[in-house]
Amino acid sequence: MERKKLKLIIAIIATILIGIIGYIANDYIILGKNKTINVVINNRNITLNLRKPVIIEGEEIYISKQDIGNYFDKYIYEEKQNNQIITTYEDKIAEISLEKNEISINGTKKETNAHAIKKEDTIYIPIQEMEEIYGIETEYKGDTKVVTIDSITREQKKAIIAKDTALKSTTRIIAKTIDRVKKGSYVIVIADENGYAKIRTENGKIGYVKSNKIANTVVVREAREKEEQNKEKINLVWDYFSTYAQAPNRTGEKMEGVNVVSPAFFHLDSNGKIQENVGDKGQAYIEWAHSNGYKVWPMVQNAGDGMLTVTSKIMNDYKKRQELIDEIFAVCIKYKLDGINIDFENMKQEDKNLFSRFIIELTPRLKSIGLDISVDVTAPDGSETWSLCFDRHVIGDVADYIIFMAYDQYGASSNKSGTTAGYDWVKVSLKKFLDTEEIKSEKIILAIPLYTRLWTENSNGEIIKQSPVSIKSIDKVIPKDLGKKWDDNLRQYYVEYTEGSNIKKMWIEDEKSLKEKISLITDYDLGGVASWVKDMETENFWSFLQKCLTLE
Fold this sequence. Notes:
The chain is of the alpha/beta class. It has twelve helices and 36 strands.
């Protein structure tokens, strides 16, 4: 009986060993002759994750638009009006034709060896033509059917195989043999793992060899670190002086802690063209700002009557968007600006994705000359043309900063009196930016109001009028020695008094209420603060704000 059991165990072990040996041998043969084209991106085989197979036509390698979207540009876009593909990556925007062998990169056209093609409703992009845009090197290994794609910004190490050896699939004792690598062949070294080197062979295969089988490891390409443009929190103040008034003379003024000013230099006219409001006074303003170490990010506004329709026409036409982008690019160079603040409000909800496209297309043009881009948005909940017209997730992902204009919780058009910016409302809105819209905290700038509103109601509680009041003028507007009531939810004082038969109401913005809102910047590690608007502040406001931002 014991002998029979022993024979059975030996037979089972033998069967398993024969199976393993056969599997290894068979696997080696199959892997030597790939039936499908494998794609290796930055030393990772992503073939099984491809949505569409790679196409090889002559010397061209075509990868589907869906897969380009997964691995390079998630915002890649078919622009049907001109039958071309629009793709953006870091500081480049490119248009590649579906008809002609040409590509335009940041507005400059050049001839190519191939163009995008469409097969069975799938668009394919010639990946070699995208090397300059995506910062990559591509190669097709015809003998093994492997496409390798390497980012030129990543470190790359190479070594020489010191002795003929097997390339294994893992570092385990029993592992599949992927290939044989010969002495003297060059390999790319991916990593060192417990006495094994993970390598990529000359024919594109990835596996492991013992570390003592490689020699002369050399760094052939250093990693390029992306330089951070702003290492400190942004402290921005808008300087609004209407579309026709001249820039103010700020000579001799200093604002402690401020590092960005945003003057009202540019706006769209009724034809959707950029109108400048700079002139000699504006030039002097820029010189003043730079001499004080302030960056200049002027506003580009679509303010004014009829701009909802004008803005919609621009957003719905790729060429018009590019014309506007070209104009913005030109004024940035002309005035040696440091960035731009896009302040587009009152837009159609149905144009939400197209406004996002505008930001997607504008950003790389500004990045190409080292500029910052910030975009103003409202709270996530509100009207179609005021709030629902923004895709905050995309804007926050693409732009350097998304500025949350945390004010006018109850504004000029409100049929009910209320606070301009209650702490609880600001906090809930910020949580939506972070949790629902999934925007990185360091990209969010919290904009605070340097004003409040004085509401006048009749005896029936109906609003007769409302008036904005700057924080520096509040004590001049409300009666002296008026009792103030603190609201723990809003975290601000409230006053109410009668004037004749009417009731006056104000939710006060002062250092105490603003400090509560500013504390959210530290609590959520936001990118900074913005203040609306210059000349509404109290005498010591800038030093107060700086102290609030530096509190641990």
